[in-house]
Design brief:
This protein has about 120 residues and is of the alpha/beta class. It is built from five helices and four strands; from the N terminus they run ββαβαααβα. About 45% of the residues lie in helices and about 15% in strands. The relative contact order is 0.25.
Length: about 120
């Protein structure tokens, strides 16, 4: 989805971000609510507490984490509702998904983006 952007919440705000959605379960350290300039905080779209704690950002667990998180994204009603909202907003303008993880390759935001891209491709 070309209107969907992913970036760390610690990166500077830009007007082209459009709708800014924090997709972490926990509030990121060192960021004020004012500086975040959020439109929404979809904390329940993040991996479950159990999965988040199990993964603990260990790259060697990422592939298994990815599969488990995809399962959550595809079966959890709340997550499916948020995904629908993001796709709908993305059809109208830019949507920036914000995450706090330091690792840009092994994080849930990347998995979520892959799933959103897949869903938009199958719908379009």
């Amino acid at each position: 989805m070309s209107n969907l952007i992913m970036k760390r919440i610690y990166e500077s705000y830009d007007e082209s971000d459009g709708c800014r959605i924090l997709i972490d379960r926990l509030w990121p350290r060192g960021i004020s609510k004012e500086a975040a300039k959020l439109s929404f905080w979809f904390k329940d779209l993040a991996p479950s507490n159990e999965l988040r704690k199990w993964f603990c950002h260990k790259p060697e667990l990422f592939e298994e984490f990815r599969g488990r998180y995809l399962d959550e994204l595809r079966t959890d009603e709340q997550k499916l509702e948020y995904i629908g909202q993001i796709i709908e907003m993305g059809a109208k303008g830019n949507v920036t998904l914000l995450y706090g993880a330091k690792d840009p390759v092994h994080n849930h935001a990347l998995v979520l983006m892959e799933e959103l891209d897949r869903l938009v491709e199958t719908e379009g």
